[in-house]
């Protein structure tokens, strides 16, 4: 009996494999950037924290007393303080104690930087196929 | 013995409470928007998923075969498929089966919408204090 050996690279399946892989056309975020972004996205992966960040940045001077933040989100001060701590740890807010109240301020450039980063994940017309 | 009742609203502590609360100057995201945003942020709260979204959007036509995605992130195809499924469920990617391969495409407008939403969380000069 005669055995015919077919070169593996000519199998239809392998052609399909070879044909499937188009090169990337635009910039891809590196591992370190992806890790930093994921950390900030994780801090915002909760509706209350999205609202709290929104309320703080909407306030005059982009800062708010913790006493301003409990009523809008309908939660107790310890719970609100817990959420705010996560936003501080993610570098999105900074905290300052003034007398009996803690004040939270949007970190200049931090949220803007996140917005820019999300924009880099957005499909641009330049990388669209014809 | 005579008991003097002091009106609660005139206690120094309550004055401090009243004095602490500055009004919000800008727009605040509503509960429904906060919930939708948090869902998408949660999908991106992982470095691998940030990278996968970045790779897909950087590809020509903003789409990539799953076979293109395993090597850049250094993970097995089942693991990559799991991450991609989370991005699909968050409405950021859509999946199409073509023969033996699944292709993932950036949902038009979805990531751009997320970038716009993050921008609304960004402190703007208009709401800065003098």
UniProtKB/TrEMBL annotation, chains A, B:
Stored SUPFAM superfamilies: Winged helix' DNA-binding domain (SSF46785)
Species this protein is from: Isoptericola peretonis
PANTHER family reported for this sequence: ARSENICAL RESISTANCE OPERON REPRESSOR, TRANSCRIPTIONAL REGULATOR, ARSR FAMILY
Protein name per its UniProtKB record: Metalloregulator ArsR/SmtB family transcription factor
Gene3D superfamilies for this protein: Winged helix-like DNA-binding domain superfamily/Winged helix DNA-binding domain
Membrane spanning residue stretches: none
InterPro entries, A to Z: ArsR-like_HTH (IPR011991), ArsR_HTH (IPR018334), HTH_ArsR_DNA-bd_dom (IPR001845), HTH_MetalResp_TranReg (IPR051081), WH-like_DNA-bd_sf (IPR036388), WH_DNA-bd_sf (IPR036390)
Chain ranges of the HTH arsR-type domain: 29-126
Keyword annotations of the record: DNA-binding, Transcription, Transcription regulation
């Amino acid at each position: 009996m005669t055995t015919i050996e077919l070169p593996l690279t000519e199998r239809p399946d392998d052609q399909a494999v070879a044909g499937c892989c188009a090169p990337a056309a635009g910039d891809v975020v590196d591992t370190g950037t992806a890790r930093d972004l994921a950390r900030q996205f994780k801090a915002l992966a909760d509706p209350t924290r999205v609202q709290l960040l929104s309320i703080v940045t909407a306030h005059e001077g982009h800062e708010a007393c913790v006493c301003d933040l409990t009523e809008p989100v309908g939660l107790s001060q310890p719970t609100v303080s817990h959420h705010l701590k996560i936003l501080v740890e993610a570098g999105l807010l900074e905290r300052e104690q003034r007398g009996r109240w803690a004040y939270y301020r949007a970190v200049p450039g931090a949220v803007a930087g996140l917005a820019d980063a999300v924009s880099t994940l957005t499909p641009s017309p330049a990388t669209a196929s014809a």
